[in-house]
C-alpha cells in the first residue's frame, strides 16, 4: 500500500523533520547556555596572576563571543518557530538553525572548557560531559556539510534572499 503520492515521501517527511530539528536546537542551546554559565561562575572566583580570571580581557572576549553566538542562535530558532506557527514551510530556516546552533554551541562549550582549565575536563562539573556530547550535534539530523549544500542550492537556484 502507498500512503500519499508516489515520489512525495521525502516531502512528507520534511513536514516532521524540520520541527524535530528545531526541538534539537532548543535542547542544544540549553547546553551552550549552561556551559557558559559555569564558565562565568568559575571566572568570577578563580584567581590568576593576582586577579580574578573574569578581569582578564581574553576571558571577557570568550564570554562575549559565547553570549553573542548563543543569542544569534536563539533568534534563528525563534524565527523558524515563528514561521512554523504561521503555517509556513521552514526547510531553509530549519537547516540554517541546525547548522548554526550546533556549531555555536560547540564553540561555547569549547570556550567554557578553556576558561575552566583542568576543572572543565574533570568529572567535578558537567563540562566534560557537554564537551563529549556536543560534537555529534553537527552530525545528527544530517551533517552540517549536507545542510550547507542544501542551503546554498536553495539560495542560488530558488533566488532566496538572505
Automatic annotation (TrEMBL):
Cofactor: FAD
A Gene Ontology term for the protein's cellular component: cytoplasm
Alphabetically ordered keywords of this record: FAD, Flavoprotein, Oxidoreductase
Molecular-function annotations in GO: acyl-CoA dehydrogenase activity
Keyword match Oxidoreductase: yes
Pfam families: Acyl-CoA_dh_1
Ranges where the Acyl-CoA dehydrogenase/oxidase C-terminal domain occurs: 7-155
InterPro entries on file: Acyl-CoA_dehydrogenase, AcylCo_DH-like_C, AcylCo_DH/oxidase_C
Entries under PANTHER family matching the protein: ACYL-COA DEHYDROGENASE FAMILY MEMBER 11 (PTHR48083:SF13), MEDIUM-CHAIN SPECIFIC ACYL-COA DEHYDROGENASE, MITOCHONDRIAL-RELATED (PTHR48083)
Name of the protein described by the UniProt record: Acyl-CoA dehydrogenase
Taxonomic placement: Bacteria, Thermotogati, Deinococcota, Deinococci, Thermales
